[in-house]
């Protein structure tokens, strides 16, 4: 129990460093594509054709 109490300050300092790093994380903003647009359909067609040409 005494060892746990002795390392508490060190553990708290380590946790503060990690907490500061965690606060700096910015989540990505994801936007769903419009899968019905002509541009997305054409892009999918190009990817499919390229994959078929490789195989």
Class per helix and strand makeup: mainly alpha
Strand content: under 5%
Q: Provide mean pLDDT, rounded.
A: 89
By DSSP (H or I, 4+ residues per run), the number of helices equals 2
- The geometry reads as elongated
Low-confidence spans:
none
Separation of termini? 65 Å
Helicity level, as a percent range?
over 70%
Biggest sheet layout: none
Number of strands: 0
Structure description:
The model has no long low-confidence stretch (mean pLDDT 89). 0% of the residues are buried. This protein has 55 residues and is mainly α. The chain has helices spanning 2-23, 38-54. It has a domain at 1-26. It is 71% helix and 0% strand.
Write the layout of secondary structure elements.
Layout: H1 2-23, H2 38-54
Summarize the structure.
The protein contains 2 helices and no strands. The protein has 55 residues and is mostly helical.
Keywords:
2 helices; mainly alpha; 55 residues; single chain
């Amino acid at each position: 129990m005494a060892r746990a109490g002795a390392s508490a300050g060190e553990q708290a300092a380590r946790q503060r460093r990690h907490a500061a790093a965690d606060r700096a994380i910015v989540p990505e903003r994801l936007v769903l594509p419009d899968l019905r647009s002509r541009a997305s359909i054409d892009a999918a067609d190009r990817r499919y054709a390229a994959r078929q040409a490789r195989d």
